[in-house]
Amino acid sequence: MTVSPPAPLLRLAHHFQSMPPVAALGLHVDGCDGRTLRLSAPLALHVNDKGCAFGGSLASLMTLAGWGLLTLRLEDAGFDAEVYVAESQIRYRAPLYDDLRVEAALVDEAAWPGFVDTLRARGRARIEIAARALCADGTLATESIARFAALRRTPAAE
């Protein structure tokens, strides 16, 4: 039996595919448990001259995972908001010779209520999201911390 992804994940995947640079990544939305978004892409589309994953591809997937996570969480909270990456720091820990698997989660889950309150009151807010890329054996290949900004387009549903 095949289980279809929930509608929010389908919308996110469709949105990613609507952007030509993102579509070229061969990105796949693997799932989201409400706190962690998982994305993947085939290594064959991201190989560098060393035979491992290109650093720019890893940075892109981690940024997209953070953006996607915040977009999904805002939608779930009833917000119509634009999400932007404001700044990020990336550390490359080990070469990745496997398909790219990235996951993103809030740096501090306890910051979410304050973020929502600020967005509701001011129409804009920022929050930090951590992302990481793992090798097939679970070894950490790359990690990032990024600050994302959300700008409310319409009032939140109460």
Automatic annotation (TrEMBL):
Pfam families listed in its UniProt record: YiiD_C (PF09500)
Organism: Vulcaniibacterium thermophilum
UniProt name for this protein: Thioesterase
InterPro entries the UniProt entry points to: HotDog_dom_sf (IPR029069), YiiD_C (IPR012660)
Domain Thioesterase putative positions: 18-143
Organism domain of life: Bacteria
Residues annotated as transmembrane: none
